[in-house]
From TrEMBL:
This is Quinone oxidoreductase. Pfam families: ADH_N (PF08240), ADH_zinc_N (PF00107). NCBIfam families: PRK10754.1. Residues 11-322 form the Enoyl reductase (ER) domain. InterPro entries: ADH-like_C (IPR013149), ADH-like_N (IPR013154), ER (IPR020843), GroES-like_sf (IPR011032), NAD(P)-bd_dom_sf (IPR036291), QOR-like (IPR047618), Quin_OxRdtase/zeta-crystal_CS (IPR002364). One of its GO terms (molecular function) is NADPH binding. Keywords: NADP, Oxidoreductase. GO terms for cellular component: cytosol.
C-alpha cells in the first residue's frame, strides 16, 4: 500500500491530505522508487497556496532520495537497488513510492546518506547555480544573501565563504544570526531591527555589493536594489514574503545601470548534462567538508502540514526532511 500527500484545492496547510495512491508499473523511461527521505522546500508552499498554480488534484513535492525498485523499458543507466536522488520533475515527492523519469535522477555517492540527499538536492543545486552560474563569485567579492539561516541560506553562506567571498546575510532573529555566523556568514544583519541597505553600505565602505541573492521578494526587493554597486546584479529567486510588485525598468538605470534576473533551478537543470554537472559539483563540495548539510527538522511525511506551518512561520532553520516510513 502506498501513502502520499495530495491536495484537491489550494489554501493553507490544512488542504494537505494523506491518501492512498496506486503506483503502476514504470512506463518506458521511468523507474519506480521507494523513498527513504523527502525534502521540504519553500516552493512546496507556493504550489499548495496557489501562488504557483498547478492542475488539481495534485501531488506535491519536488525532492527526495530513495532506492530503485523497478525499471521501465529503455532505462539503461539504472538498476534495481541503485541509490538515487532528485530535485525537479513532476510534482509528487511527498510519497512513500512513486515513478520518476530516469533522466531526472542522479546516483547518490557512497558517502552521502539518503537523508542528506533529500535535504541537499534542491537547495544545494540552487546554491550551485546562484554562486557558480548566475553570478560567478570570485575570491574577494562581498555578497548579500537574504534568509541566511534558511535551507538555501546556510548552504550559500558556507559555499560562498569557501570561494573566498565576504558574506553578508540577513536573518530574522539573534539565534539565526548565530547559526549563520557559524556557517560562514561574516556579517549577520537582523533585518527586522535595522535597515539592511544602510548596514550593507556601511560594511562595504559605501560601495555596495556586486550581487544580491534575494529570496524574500516583496518586502526586500527595493532595498536589495539599493545595496548594489553600479552594474551590480540583482538575483530575485523567491517570494517568501510575497511576489515582487511590477516596477518600471527605468529604475535600474537610475540606480546604477543594474542587472536583474529572476532564475529558477529548473531553468538551469533542464538539460541533463547541466543537472549532472551541478549535482557533481554539489557532491564534491559536500564531500570535501567545505559545505555541511544541516538537517535541523524532521517530520513524519504524514505530518507535512505541520512542516509547512513551521516553515511559513519562520520557525525552521537549515534544511528539513519528511520521513515517509
Ligand atoms: P528557507 O529555509 O529559507 O525559509 C524561508 C525563510 O525566509 C524563513 O525562514 C525566513 O527567515 C525568511 N522570510 C522572510 N520573510 C518571510 C515571510 N514573510 N514569511 C516566511 N519567511 C520569510 O526556505 P528555502 O531554503 O526552502 O527557500 C528559500 C527561498 O529560496 C524561498 O523563497 C524559495 O522559494 C527560494 N528558492 C528558489 C529557487 C529558485 O531556483 N528560484 C530554488 C530554491 C529555493 P528569517 O526569519 O531569517 O527572515
Amino acid at each position: 500500500m502506498n501513502q502520499a500527500i495530495r491536495f484537491h484545492e489550494t489554501g493553507g496547510p490544512e488542504v494537505l491530505r494523506w491518501e492512498t495512491v496506486e503506483v503502476p508499473a514504470p512506463a518506458s523511461g521511468e523507474v519506480t522508487l521507494r523513498h527513504h527521505s523527502v525534502g521540504l522546500n519553500y516552493i512546496d508552499t507556493y504550489h499548495r497556496s496557489g501562488l504557483y498554480p498547478v492542475p488539481l488534484p495534485s501531488g506535491i513535492g519536488l525532492e527526495a532520495a530513495g532506492e530503485v525498485t523497478a525499471v521501465g523499458e529503455g532505462v539503461t543507466e539504472l538498476r534495481v537497488g541503485d541509490r538515487v536522488a532528485y530535485a525537479g520533475g513532476p510534482l509528487g515527492a511527498y510519497a512513500q513510492h512513486r515513478n520518476m523519469p530516469a533522466d531526472r535522477l542522479v546516483k547518490l555517492p557512497e558517502g552521502i546518506s539518503y537523508e542528506q540527499g533529500a535535504a541537499m538536492m534542491l537547495q544545494g543545486m540552487t546554491a550551485q547555480y546562484l554562486l557558480r552560474r548566475t553570478y560567478r563569485v570570485q575570491a574577494g567579492d562581498t555578497v548579500l544573501i537574504h534568509a541566511a539561516a534558511g535551507g538555501v541560506g546556510l548552504i550559500v553562506c558556507q559555499w560562498a565563504k569557501a570561494l573566498g567571498a565576504t558574506v553578508i546575510g540577513t536573518v530574522g532573529s539573534e539565534e539565526k544570526a548565530e547559526l549563520a555566523r557559524a556557517h560562514g556568514c561574516d556579517h549577520a544583519i537582523l533585518y527586522n531591527r535595522e535597515k539592511f541597505a544602510d548596514r550593507v553600505r556601511e560594511i562595504t565602505g559605501g560601495k555596495g555589493v556586486p550581487v544580491v541573492y534575494d529570496s524574500i521578494g516583496k518586502d526586500t526587493f527595493m532595498d536589495s536594489l539599493s545595496c548594489l554597486r553600479p552594474r551590480g546584479l540583482m538575483v530575485t529567486y523567491g517570494n517568501a514574503s510575497g511576489p515582487v510588485a511590477p516596477f518600471d525598468p527605468g529604475l535600474l538605470a537610475k540606480m546604477g545601470s543594474l542587472f536583474l534576473t529572476r532564475p529558477t533551478l529548473f531553468g538551469y537543470t533542464a538539460e541533463r548534462e547541466d543537472l549532472v554537472a551541478m549535482a557533481q559539483d554539489l557532491f564534491e563540495v559536500v564531500g570535501s567538508g567545505k559545505v555541511k548539510i544541516e538537517v535541523r527538522q524532521r517530520y513524519p511525511l504524514a505530518e507535512a502540514a505541520q512542516a509547512h506551518r513551521d516553515l511559513e512561520a519562520r520557525k525552521t532553520t537549515g534544511s528539513t526532511v519528511l520521513e515517509p516510513f
